[in-house]
Amino acid sequence: MTLNAHGMRVVMRQMQEIDANPIADVHMAPTEDLRELHFEIDGPEGTPYEAGRFAGVLVFEESYPDVPPKGYFRTRIFHPNVSEKGDICVNALKKDWKPDMGLRHVLQVIRCLLVEPNPESALNEEAGRLLLEDYVTFEKKAAMLTRIHSLRPAGASRFVGGEVAKEEEANTENGAVSQAATTASSGAGLRNMGDSNVNAVASTAVKKEEDKNKKKAADKKKSALKRI
């Protein structure tokens, strides 16, 4: 099943709007298939999920935006409103859906779900029960499973406005500049070598090639004599 033409236009427009005005802690990862929108969410600070980065996907029905997308987490997470298979249960994707809500609202709601779980509509009964009866145990287990299954890569900054924090980009650029400087320095060193040194290097290379050719010729001659 594929999106109709109207749905495709809506999805593309809403993605462009988010790209122009990104959502904190959220990174979109569009695919060529407009029936799906892949995304990643950094666990909100102050929650058991804050050390994690959770991958998810929104799947659009043919008649979107008249019907809501279906949401799934592809990364395992211990959460009352997320099933063991990753299904996300939130009213915005069900009975409260309205065609004018859009993708921004959906992604914001999913992020907020990590801040304020709703145990009353739990898909994971154990998580819902612990949240209500023993929050300390719930918090410890959620944090532990986050570290096991969805720990943010070492050195990776949080998504800021939908993009990885600028410091990573700066580090990459600095590394490239440093490499370029090293290369330039090496090139300058070669250029500064005296002509005699350069010629000596060239002469050595030529001599090695000549010796190599002479050896090949001698080997061929030996082979010919053996055949005789």
UniProtKB/TrEMBL annotation:
- What family is this protein classified in? Belongs to the ubiquitin-conjugating enzyme family.
Molecular function terms in GO for this entry? ATP binding; ubiquitin conjugating enzyme activity
Q: Which PROSITE patterns match?
A: UBC_1 (PS00183), UBC_2 (PS50127)
- One Pfam family named in its UniProt record: UQ_con
Bias regions of kind Basic residues — which residues?
214-228
Protein species of origin: Angomonas deanei
Q: Where is this region: Disordered?
A: 166-228
Occurrences of domain UBC core (ranges): 6-151
User: Residue ranges under compositional bias (Low complexity)?
Assistant: 175-189
* Protein name according to UniProt: E2 ubiquitin-conjugating enzyme
The EC designation for this entry is: 2.3.2.23
Q: Which UniProt keywords apply?
A: ATP-binding, Nucleotide-binding, Transferase, Ubl conjugation pathway
User: What are the positions of the active site?
Assistant: 89 (glycyl thioester intermediate)
List all membrane-crossing ranges: none
